[in-house]
Write a structure and sequence with these properties.
Blueprint: H1 3-11, H2 22-38, H3 47-54, H4 58-71, E1 74-76, E2 83-85, H5 87-93, H6 97-117, E3 120-127, E4 130-137, E5 153-155, H7 160-166, H8 171-189, H9 194-207, E6 210-213, E7 220-228, E8 234-243, H10 249-273
Antiparallel strand pairs: 1-2, 3-4, 3-8, 4-5, 6-7, 7-8
Length: about 280
């Protein structure tokens, strides 16, 4: 199907919360706002951009942000029109020490990957139909065009780490996520990136791991592998990102081997730290 025809097909799909009760919709909108707010903790959001991202009118978004600021979930800075995550989000994160224990184990492994590859090493968690970069080691590297940092949230189909996870999911689940991601992409940016996103997914499927050669960011290459949980299901991904010079074709196989070895070690780390529930466990 041509990308434009695909775009028209996806726009006909209903909103996932369209049939939710009014109270539930209110909670969903607030949570969506918090998720997007926390995805750009370093750079912040302009009101108009944030409202468009979450599908709210400016007035509603402004009122919700005012409430979140009052409660400590959002923040404004002096002489800055942007909105940022609030301190209370950090305080709430402290109530999850298993993830701090995981960070203490993963960060040295990312540093080793960075040094061995000459690339930026990132660890991302699956979050529904998104991936969130939670830990990263950049060393002294700065790559213009690379916008992903710790805290950055991306639809799964728009990041090589997400594609690595998608490859390990059952086909119906992967298709559902791609369809949902595509609807969001169309709502936010239209169809202009669809061809590049499809090219990156096709390249990754052919390689057997997440892989891009400048598909979304010219001059940048990245590869990623999934990290399985105790049930063997992908809950995270490891990514190396570098310039064309740092990741030439002959280096890709070596760097993938580095990632696979680190992924095995981190899977063991996660099993020890997170103690994720066994498949089928009741809650």
């Amino acid at each position: 199907m041509h990308p434009h025809e695909q775009a028209l097909a996806f726009t006909e799909s209903p909103s996932p919360d369209g049939d939710a009760p009014a109270g539930t919709r209110s909670v969903q909108r607030t949570l969506a706002l918090l998720k997007e707010l926390s995805s750009r903790g370093e750079f912040g959001w302009r009101l108009s951009d944030l409202a468009r991202q979450v599908g709210l009118d400016r007035g509603t978004c402004h009122r919700m942000l005012a409430c979140l600021i009052k409660e400590g979930f959002a923040a404004r800075r002096d002489n800055d029109l942007k909105y940022y995550p609030g301190q209370l989000l950090f305080e709430m994160g402290l109530s999850m020490p298993p993830y701090e224990a995981l960070r203490e184990r993963v960060q040295p492994r990312l540093a080793e990957l960075c040094q061995a590859s000459g690339c930026i090493a990132s660890f991302s968690l699956r979050s529904g139909s998104d991936v969130v970069c939670v830990f990263q080691h950049r060393g002294s590297l700065e790559l213009s065009g690379m916008m992903i940092r710790a805290g950055t949230r991306r639809p799964m189909f728009s990041a090589v780490g997400g594609l690595a996870i998608l490859q390990q999911l059952p086909a119906p689940e992967a298709d559902r996520i791609v369809n949902e991601n595509t609807r969001r992409e169309l709502a936010l940016r239209g169809a202009r990136r669809l061809a590049a996103l499809q090219r990156m997914r096709r390249r990754s499927d052919e390689a057997g791991f997440g892989f891009t050669i400048g598909d979304l960011a010219p001059g940048l290459r990245a590869l990623a592998v999934p990290v399985p949980d105790a049930n063997g299901e992908p809950f995270a991904a490891l990514t190396l990102t570098g310039s064309d010079a740092a990741l030439p074709e002959p280096e890709v196989a070596r760097c993938r081997a580095l990632l696979l070895d680190a992924a095995d070690r981190i899977a063991a780390d996660a099993a020890a730290c997170l103690r994720r529930p066994a498949r089928g466990a009741s809650h």
